[in-house]
Predict the 3D structure of the following.
Amino acid sequence: MGYSKTIAPPKRRGDGVVGVDIGEIHPIVSHDGQHTEIYNGRYIRSLYRHRNKVLAEFHQMLSRCKRHSKRWWRLTRRKWKRMKKIDAQIKDALNKHTTNFVKSTAERNIGTIVLGDLTGIRININYSKRSNQKLHQWAFSKITSLITYKAKELGIKVEQIDEAYTSQTCPKCGNRKKSNNRNYTCKCGFKYHRDGVGAINIRRKYLGHFGVPVVADMDNQAMKMTPPLGFRLKVPVASS
Ligand SMILES: [Zn+2]
């Protein structure tokens, strides 16, 4: 007799595709073809700022004492402890956001999550911003792995694509333009929340429609773009 025990395969999900832009301002911005969801990053950003401030304070104190001295070690151990605590708070917030996002995806008949990949992150040479850049890169890969892991458990496929130009390209006409404020406005008349544009385009890129002008009267349903129905702002998670 062979094994009769069967492992239940993950429940098969639907045909829906959601594009995700992992940003510096907001940790997760997603678009499913109709709705854009923006997970507010204010709380996480305040933790980043706090982390940088505490780190700078310790570095200043450490610079004033002899390396490997008693006081130096005491300060170093205190620094590690503080960092560990703040990092745990950041991880906790990212955990909550990704859990909420993957759950809401599963509820919407979505079978595929498309993420931009790390190549899209610019390396900022501005020295003062370097520690922030490192944090954002760390958060980017953390969010990517958390979403991938949690989606897998629910039978949702995760794909990664190069996110180059996805935040600058008009989803409607394909024109390329950078947006300097909250609103993306194109000469063709397309207007939208800037952060949603990246998610719309990441989704369209996966579907093979990126930069392809949307022709309203075309028969091919796949080439049409449903006008985005607005966005939902998710309230910041508070550390419990
Ligand atoms: Zn346009």
